[in-house]
Amino acid sequence: MLxxxxxxxxxxxxxxxxxxxRVLVVDDNVGSAQMMSIMLTKFWKHDVRVAHDGQQAxxxxxxxxxxxxxxxxxxxxxxxxxxxxxxxxNPEFHQTLLVELTGYDEEEDRRRVQEAGFDEHLxxxxxxxxxxxxxxxxxxxxxx
Length: 144
What we know:
A 5-stranded parallel sheet has the order 2-1-3-4-5, sandwiched between helices.
């Protein structure tokens, strides 16, 4: 039997006001990336791919063409800032919603996020509610 807190957390993930999207989750913390992928796939039916370094993220983005990218900053091989800049340089990703998902929330971090081309900044762990808001972001349109 689930505890009240576990049931409440599961309820937060049930239902989404947004249509399913193509999503790329990029995080060198394998467990964190896998958990987010499972939640986005199981509860909200998004088509999710996962990468654990910047180079892999760029390769997957080319074939998966994500609508939304959740991108950690501290990645091996190529930093999340550099991945964001490279995606933004490609016209095919101008409409992609780039979301920095990080453990840092300092003013300097937010400045660098904007310079790199991110649309949004989320601090880990992100709540289901804050993630739901991103999937109805104006940049994504209606998605139908």
